[in-house]
Amino acid sequence: DPKIIQKPKYLVAVTGSEKILICEQYLGHNAMYWYRQSAKKPLEFMFSYSYQKLMDNQTASSRFQPQSSKKNHLDLQITALKPDDSATYFCASSQDRQAEQFFGPGTRLTVL
Amino acid sequence: QQKVQQSPESLIVPEGGMASLNCTFSDRNSQYFWWYRQHSGEGPKALMSIFSNGDKKEGRFTAHLNKASLHVSLHIKDSQPSDSALYFCADMSNYNVLYFGSGTKLTVEP
To answer: Which contacts of A78-85 are long-range, i.e. CB under 8 A and separated by 24 or more positions?
Structure first.
């Protein structure tokens, strides 16, 4: 059974719309993260959460908002979508600091 | 300024050969490094970590760290076609953030 679930696997959106990317982990981890991977940039850190609290945010735009409704959930809301937001978004989790981060399968977002 | 520089961009080795991947990091305070592997269509998966100077061996994989020269490398012995993937080195900050290099695409030819 997959331990980190990301939904949907593929997502197509129009410019200016809003989407929510879902992430659930069943590893019992306390820390969760979002990373982004595009053709233009390597894997890029976006957010980290620990015990449902934001620890680090390296996303310049406020259009990206993580949402943690439960300990094992960390969704990513993206508003006012732009074509440059097209990328694969990976959710990850770890037990604690400096522990191995486990990545989900990703959500591939295409903004037209 | 990119935190981690990775080379080569792509690498082709014959089956059974040795693959060597390199990274140079810019922060002298960096202490913890990871190697990740990503097969096509999947998320990255950790191969191994290293935080002490010297070599660390896990099976066919050996990581080497030299903090004085700001260099970390990965060597894959007896490469297999299943090793064909994208490989990333990553510098882990004190806040558990992974700063990834740009990746090396490894192709192992049968």
So the answer is: A78/A18, A78/A19, A78/A20, A78/A21, A78/A109, A79/A18, A80/A16, A80/A18, A81/A13, A81/A14, A81/A15, A81/A16, A81/A17, A81/A18, A81/A19, A81/A111, A82/A15, A82/A111, A83/A15, A83/A111, A83/A112, A84/A111, A85/A109, A85/A111
